[in-house]
Request: fold
Amino acid sequence: MKSNSSLRKIAVIISSFLLTFAFVTTATSQQNDQTEANKQQSETKKEPINPNADVKDGWRISDYKPYISSLKDLETLSQEYSEFLLKRAIDEYAKGLDTLDDMETEVTRLKENYKNKKYLNEKWYWQEVDRKNAQDRYINRLRIEAKTKAVTYFTKAINTLDEIRSNELMNNEKYLTFKSRLFRIYVSTQYDIGNFKPCIPILERYVTLTDENRKDLWAYKYMSNCYAFMETLLDKTGKSSEEDVVYYKNKKNQALLKAVEIQYGLDSPEFKELQLIVQLDEKKSESINVNK
Reply:
């Protein structure tokens, strides 16, 4: 009897322990579930979905695409946008200058090497002549390649400047100075590689930029030569009208007179002599046109 009573007590104790453990486990699980739910709810509250995120004062603008381009073009008038374009133009200008500087450094190095090198295998004078001609051709090729590459950078810079529409910046003295320098290096580089025609519109723009440019002797020297080239080219091809030839002839004469006026003065013998030459040239053209 005593043994059975002890067994019953042990069974009761074990049952009580199991019930207590089950209760604690259930409570802990419920608490963890509640904590996780609260955490998710808290995160949801931190990043709420705003159905009106693309709404501005009642306008739904997320898919807006302007039909009238002039409204968008107004943005280009801002000072900030114009300064951004100016920086891009300056970068292209600097690349062009670096290309020319590197070329000049290389040419100087080559000339020095050619000068100091001993050519012991040359027995005849014609060998020396051939060698020097080959060296000159190589140097000229380097120059043309570098100048052609530089012109590409200068052209990009000019095109970028043409996009600037801020009146405040366009009337700025530093801006005009930079633009004048860009035009000068563009013209002189194009002229060196024989591209005369593209120089004409840039020169015509250059002399209208500032009063100082309007009195620039070199501008009219380049201009007169470019006009003369176009006059000769059109005259030789025979495919252009006489009016086109006369147009460039008159432009050439005007540029020549302006150059001599700047260099020597209106009352100088040089200017008066050139006036006579120009008048004879124009009369000759008129006579040819009449006979035709």
